[in-house]
Amino acid sequence: MNKTTKRHINNDVEKIKAALINATYHMKDRASDLLSQSLENAKDKKDDIQRDVTNRVKKHPLAAIGIAALAGAVVGFIFRRK
Predict the structure, then answer these.
(1) 72 vs 78: CA distance, rounded Å
(2) How far is C-alpha 30 from the geometric centre of its chain's CA atoms?
(3) Residue 22 burial (CB count, 10 A)
(4) How far is 19 from 13, CA to CA, in rounded Å?
(5) pLDDT digits (tens, 9 = 90+) for 23-49
(6) How confident is the model at residue 4, as a pLDDT?
(7) At residue 2, what are phi and psi to the nearest 5 degrees?
């Protein structure tokens, strides 16, 4: 291989390396954006659920106590058997 061919190959390798680095940074930024957006959506959903449960408990306090007691009994039954 002559010097010119080696130089062209080295230039091509450097271009490919630069393109891969650039693509990696772009993918990292995109993934970070998607994760931030997903976290924000999850927080909003959690707030909606919490508000809904609070409203239901306020409207039906006896039913809420009954459901909590039943859930406690089921959990106690499951762990008592082990």
Answers:
(1) 10
(2) 13
(3) 10
(4) 10
(5) 999 999 999 999 999 999 999 999 999
(6) 86
(7) -90, 170
Q: How confident is the model at residue 82 (pLDDT cuts 50, 70, 90)?
A: low
| Alpha-carbon gap, residue 55 to 70, rounded angstroms | 20
Cβ(64)–Cβ(57) under 8 Å? yes
Residue that has been written with the tokens 């006896």 in this structure: 62
pTM over 0.70: no
Give, to the nearest 10 degrees, the angle between helix 61-81 and helix 3-59: 120
Q: Residue ranges per domain, the chain?
A: 3-81
* The amino acid at 74: V
**What is the rounded distance in angstroms from the CA atom of residue 67 to the CA atom of residue 56?**
12
Three-point CA angle 14, 17, 21, nearest 5°: 140
